[in-house]
Amino acid sequence: MGSISKLSHPCPASSLSSIFNNPKASDPKCLIGLLTTSNNTFTSKLSSSKLSLRSKPSLRASLIVRCAQGEGNGSPTKKTYLHELYDKEGQSPWYDNLCRPVTDLLPLIASGVRGVTSNPAIFQKAISTSNAYNDQFRELVQSGKDIETAYWELVVKDIQDASKLFESIYDQTDAADGYVSVEVSPRLADDTEGTVEAAKWLHKVVSRPNVYIKIPATAPCIPSIKEVIANGISVNVTLIFSLSRYEAVIDAYLDGLEASSLNDISRVTSVASFFVSRVDTLIDKLLEKIGTPEALDLRGKAAVAQAALAYQLYQKKFSGPRWEALVKKGAKKQRLLWASTSVKNPAYPDTLYVAPLIGPDTVSTMPDQALQAFLDHGTVSRTIDSNVSEAEGIYSALEHLGIDWSYVGDQLELEGVDSFKKSFDSLLDTLQEKANSLKLMASISAIGSPHRPLTSSAGISRTPVRRGPHSLLPPEAEKVPDSGAGGGSTNAVDRRKMLLSSIGVVAAAFCNKEAALASQFADMPALRGKDYGKSKMSYPDYTETESGLQYKDLRAGNGPKPKVGDTVVVDWDGYTIGYYGRIFEARNKTKGGSFEGDDKAFFKFRVGSQEVIPAFEEAITGMSLGGVRRIIVPPELGYPDNDYNKSSPKPTTFSGQRALDFVLGNQGLIDKTLLFDIELIKIIPN
Question: Cα(502)–Cα(444) distance, rounded to whole angstroms?
């Protein structure tokens, strides 16, 4: 009564012929469009499901998925290994990823995926690297929503849309499968009551029966799990790294079911997400420090061994009089869910954390790497309890070597919570940057003229040049003299007035076409994000040099030009003009943004010393003191090897470094053209 109903899943080749194909009966294969990103490559083969490791040969890079062979006359059944995983062994394969468009999940569902898990890190990657969220986000910002509220509305929409795709599985299994998971804020990991209220709120706003609210298995949240379950809300308990904490999670689930006032608790379900690969990552390091042959031989075995013992605990706890009493009220077992199933060590087989953990009434949630590997060359057989004695021996041997399992669990929990918090905060920073751009664009449209005083979106006047507490230069070096050698204009505020259009360029990437026209340079095609891969574009109002640098003087200087050997002091802003005009350096950006520059020092370098990228050097040598020049930098004049660490100027904030590194380090067709605004503040003669 408490187990999953098993359904047959014919391969939908007839209804999804564009996704599946069976070209040869002798070697049946299903061609499925799993994902379309460049990092969807298969990794390595696993030919053994034992606890011991075997070396992995190379695997062809392909999206070909082998179909399972049928019985009888030998004709293919048109099923994948994922279908067999569920039909034959009772394990539900889920996908550990979610992004827009959620319809990308359809071929995965057709291939046998039966649920989806998400977390703050997954949403951080999805939202910050995709423009699919921009339209909804723009509407939310324009309606006055704060950043965190906007974040949750983006997430809720994805969860609702994805859960709709799995509703049929949920219904067919009587609420045992077909779930999509969404996590409460990671900032609440130490807040018992806050977690309960957040779970209730998420359950209410998502309003879908097949959604799990994810709650971390931290000590303060164990009571939260009980209360949320008692309130009739289904829960995915995440970040479980030890047997002792797992037992506490089971007890919280049972306590919650017993405390529930519902007459029928069959629709209150749960999974316990037991993390696997991270255990090996930490314990392997400890074993290498020990360094003995016995210790080194145990590398890569701890995680699967502990998981096998967790399954033994699961079988014990969900049996006996207490459990049978709950079954009479309709209770379903809290299934074990294997999480963190991707291989972190490339020396290990790529299905190491999937193949040895197959067993009934369990879930395996797999990210791209593990899912594709198992689809390609997985082996389907019950393995989770086939080597229990070996698992016990490994667990004990590690203890004898001094490995403290309690320490491992506590440390990994701390790291997991911290990682999700950082992803969450990073995403809010990214959204704040986008929101600032939108608000600035609205402010620009309202101002209408670049000659009016420049204010932030909050109406606060902006002082364009400030000296920070950690300046590289003494106060007198940062003052701009009126005239003479090394002299220049004192009207530095004009620079920010003249750079108004720069802000418009950035905002144009997120605003509609009509609003974008408020910016003088909004007609640059690359900034509308429709010219990826075009690393060379010419703009008619710019001067192009022989090297390929394009420049435009926003303000002509009235002083001397620097000579080779002189030290120059400059202020600068930077944008990834070829990728949505994202800011990666701005000294005086709107208050509250990730690039707020009040504490930044001016940048200085010696002309001719090759300290800076070629385009920067060329631009400066042609400028007069006090001038402001905008330059468009093709990749060949930019950072060597697309690495900003190898040359200056470097972004001075983490957010800026992240934004620039995303573009420079991307192996796809992202245009790596950059835009800089440079103000020549001072020349110090050689």
Answer: 11
Contact 678, 628 (CB under 8 A): yes
Residue 546 has which token pair? 């022989």
Residue 606: its H or E element: strand 603-606
In the structure encoding, which two tokens stand for residue 275, read together?
């993390």
Beta-carbon count within 10 A of 75 CB: 11
Q: Which of 334, 200, 198, 227 is nearest to 273 (CA)?
A: 334
Q: Strand (E) positions, 96-190? A: 180-183
pTM for this predicted structure: 0.60
> Can you tell me the distance from the alpha carbon of 174 to that of 361, in angstroms, rounded to the nearest whole number?
14
**If 0-12 CB within 10 Å is exposed, 13-18 middle and 19+ buried, where does residue 348 land?**
buried
Judge whether 191 and 211 are in contact, CB under 8 Å. no
Alpha carbon distances (Å) from 624 to 348, 389, 485, 488, 500: 59, 79, 11, 9, 21
Residue 588 to residues 244, 462, 467, 481: CA-CA distances in angstroms?
51, 7, 11, 22
**CB-neighbour burial class of residue 537 (10 A; exposed 0-12, middle 13-18, buried 19+):** middle
* Catalytic-role residue among 29, 56, 79, 214: 214
Is the separation of the CB atoms in 653 and 601 below 8 Å?
A: no
Angle at 352 between CA 280 and CA 391, to 5 degrees: 65
Task: Give the model confidence (pLDDT) of 177-206 as tens digits.
Answer: 999 999 999 999 999 999 999 999 999 999
In the residue annotation, 214 being an active-site residue is answered as yes
The closest alpha carbon to 504, from 487, 488, 517, 489, belongs to 517
pLDDT tens string 249-264: 999 999 999 999 999 9
Residue 249 and residue 260: Cα distance in Å, rounded? 17
Q: Cα Rg for the chain, rounded, in angstroms?
A: 29
Answer whether 122's CB lies under 8 Å from 96's CB: yes
Q: What is the residue whose two structure tokens read 């259009």?
A: 501
Q: How far apart are CA 43 and CA 595, in angstroms?
A: 38
State the DSSP H helix or E strand holding residue 424, giving kind and residue range, or none if neither.
helix 405-447
d(CA 679, CA 686): 20
Q: Could you say which DSSP state residue 581 is in?
A: T
Percent of the chain, pLDDT > 90?
62
Structure tokens at 495: 């620079």
